[in-house]
Amino acid sequence: THNLPPGLEYLNQLDQIIIHQQVELLEAILGTETSSKYEIKNHLGQRVYFAVEENVCFDRKLCSPIRAFTIRIADNTGREVIRVIRPLRCNSCWFPCFLQELEVQSPPGTVAGYVVQNWDPFLPKFTIQNQSKEDVLKIIGPYATCGCFDDVDFEVKALNEMTTIGKISKYWSGFVNNVFTNTANFGIQVPVDLDVRIKAVMIGACFLIDLMFFENSLDGL
């Protein structure tokens, strides 16, 4: 573990990561959009990281869900260990040259990998790349991302797109919770021996999927 980026040793033995969005009281009552905050937990529900989105109110109001952002992820001591950077880009299959791309750094300032959207007329598709921009994994979502009272799974696949090795799941957590607070609850399942840097990139991919498909959707209801 001495070769791991500082703070990523927490991910070394994890094959399941839970991401829970925290809802501010003002946002829940008035519907006012505030910066997103997340707890990142292990399968036992123990918090291992805390994430805060940084952007400006103008971006959240006008550009959501394609807004640019920086998400800073800190461990339980408050040390920033992962930084997720998303530039403002298109969210339409009609602009295949300017699709979504996200950079994940760990430690902050050092690239751990990238999430790159792939053009497809029917399915949400992404490629996970390492720090050298070499393709590592694929993520393929369903044709319809509305849950309709059920979970929504984005499958994590090998580069041949034939072998499924994990998934990113949007959990449906009930009508009242989804409609009136629009909280995000995700689960990431990956092989336990996956490079911790790629696990960090998968966390970034989860944030991107949340904003692209669920930010203003009332979770498919």
Description:
- With 221 residues, this protein is an alpha+beta fold.
- The protein has one domain.
- The protein is built from 4 helices and 12 strands.
- It has helices spanning 25-30, 57-62, 175-181, 196-213, and strands at 16-22, 37-41, 47-54, 69-75, 80-86, 101-105, 111-118, 125-130, 135-140, 152-157, 164-170, 185-189.
- The chain has a 12-stranded antiparallel β-barrel with strand order 1-2-3-4-5-6-7-8-9-10-11-12.
- A hairpin with a 4-residue loop joins strand 4 (69-75) and strand 5.
- It is globular, with a radius of gyration of 16 Å.
Euclidean distance between termini CA atoms = 44 Å
**How are the strands ordered across the major sheet?**
1-2-3-4-5-6-7-8-9-10-11-12
Structural class comes to alpha+beta
Mean pLDDT: 81
Please report the number of helical segments. Answer: 4
Could you tell me the number of beta strands? 12
InterPro entries: Scramblase
GO molecular function: phospholipid scramblase activity
Organism: Lanius ludovicianus (Loggerhead shrike)
Cofactor: Ca(2+)
Task: Give short descriptive properties of this protein.
disordered C terminus, 221 residues, alpha+beta, 12-stranded antiparallel barrel, globular
Give a short overview.
May mediate accelerated ATP-independent bidirectional transbilayer migration of phospholipids upon binding calcium ions that results in a loss of phospholipid asymmetry in the plasma membrane. Pfam families: Scramblase. By secondary structure, the protein is α+β, with helices and mostly antiparallel strands.
